[in-house]
Amino acid sequence: MTTITPLEQRRIRLGNDYGTMENIRRPWLKWRPLRGAPPFVEQYELELQLRTIVSSKPAYRDNHVIQITLGADYPVSSAPIVQMITKPFAFHPNWFPSSGRWCYGTWLVYESLGAHVVRMIQTLQYNEDITNEHSAANGEARAWYLANRSRGLFPCDRTPLPDPTGTAQQATLKKKFQIKA
Predict the structure, then answer these.
(1) How many structural domains compose the chain?
(2) pLDDT of the residue at 136
């Protein structure tokens, strides 16, 4: 019986995560590796073109640069570190105002990196199904969010999000090229 070392497990995971990142790439969601050689990427830089709120006015921004770092203990003991580089940072209950880091909630070891990124994008969109109003990351944004829920501000962006598994793309291609009898 062959056993897989933790290093081999990590390499397999990084390779699989690279595949899910390829599946979510879009004209509005671009990324590049910052550290590691594909498919074993340990740090990504994302460029997103979608609307998010950056202050309580509300003020909006449509372009964002985000860095994702996969630490040495990823995925077993540590989640990806997701940090906004563009300032001002997102004004959101689930984003820390001082560091620009995303508060992801609970880390699920089986969640692919692509799925993690899509979930993060949902917070930037102020998707009400994913926004955690009980988050302590940004108390000011939390209070503002709760006070403005009925004003029709959310979600602030309705860009359809990609499927990290690639199955939606495969189904579309299959349907597109299906031959009718």
Answers:
(1) 1
(2) 80
Q: Does residue 118 sit within a domain?
A: yes
User: Is residue 17 domain-resident?
Assistant: yes
CA 163 centroid distance within chain: 12
pLDDT at 135: 81
- Using CA atoms, how far residue 99 sits from 86, 90, 96, 109, 116, in Å, is 11, 11, 6, 24, 19
CATH number at residue 65: 3.10.110.10
Residue 120 domain boundaries? 6-176
Residues 6+ apart with CB under 8 A from 39: 14, 15, 18, 19
Share of the chain above pLDDT 70, in %: 92
